[in-house]
Amino acid sequence: MKLNNVEHIFFDLDHTLWDFDKNSGMAFNSIFEKNKIGVKLDRFMEVYSPINENYWKLYREDKVTQTDLRYGRLKESFDMLKMSVSDEQIEILSIEYIDHLPNHNILLEGAVDLLEYLAPKYRLHIITNGFKDVQHKKLKNSGIETFFDTVTTSEDAGVKKPNRLIFEKALKTAGALVSNSIMIGDNFEADVLGAQKVGMKAILYNYYKREFSPKYLQVLKMKEIAAYL
Predict the structure, then answer these.
(1) pLDDT per residue over 138-167, tens digit each?
(2) Can you tell which superkingdom this protein's organism belongs to (predicted)?
(3) 142/12 Cα distance (integer angstroms)
(4) Whole-structure pTM over 0.85, yes or no?
(5) 3 in any annotated domain
């Protein structure tokens, strides 16, 4: 079923195009080896991933700062693993992690094929809650920067998805209308409900394969998006 009157497509970045889990794991592996942190990566990521997801939720809701997020997700992970890591060491790791993260740039399966399919037909854009400098490095280093006409970060907008203001700023920057735009992202609250707040259509890339009402457009694989566009 093709969606009508779409001219502008807005993508989330992490967990939608950029493989956050794999790239994050490689970044941690690098800094743990450098700093002689004795933990098995698989076990660390098993603990870290849900903690990180929760911190991003708190960050979206303005309940923690950027600094709180960077430090707290590591502190809670080490505490859960019963590892004694000093606050000073955690601060170092939190900085080095952000520095190393854009050096690893695996994209999710089908991402490039989809962008190559869409680019001749639509204007493509990014809306992301990720940190501005890091997100731009990810786009450049992964080789997909040239697909996008505009990039709107939460730092640009002063608010985070699902706040309607970030979508309004992205639409204005892109010269797009609500009626001819669609949002594609992995986070139901931030991407789908956020887009719908301003009247945009949305497709959920159900990255974690969670249960959502069938009334929302959703796909399990990136290539399935082409059926709608």
Answers:
(1) 999 999 999 999 999 999 999 999 999 999
(2) Bacteria
(3) 15
(4) yes
(5) no
Q: How many residues does the chain have?
A: 229
14 and 122, same structural domain?
A: yes
Interval 82-109: pLDDT, tens: 999 999 999 999 999 999 999 999 999 9
DSSP symbols for 92-134? HHHHHHHHHGGG--PBPTTHHHHHHHHTTTSEEEEEE-S-HHH
Domain extent for 93: 20-103
If residue 16 lies in a helix (H) or strand (E), which one and from where to where?
A: none
Could you tell me if 166 and 70 lie in one domain?
A: no
Measured distance CA(220)–CA(198) in Å, rounded: 25
- β-bridge partners, 150: 125
Alpha carbon 132 to chain centroid, angstroms: 12
Q: Which residues contact 186 (CB under 8 A, 6 or more apart)?
A: 12, 14, 15, 16, 204, 205, 206, 207, 208
Whether residue 187 sits in one domain with residue 138: yes
Quick one: tokens of 70?
Answer: 């960077």
* Same domain? 200 vs 154: yes
Question: Interior CA angle at 192 toward 223 and 118, to 5°?
Answer: 35
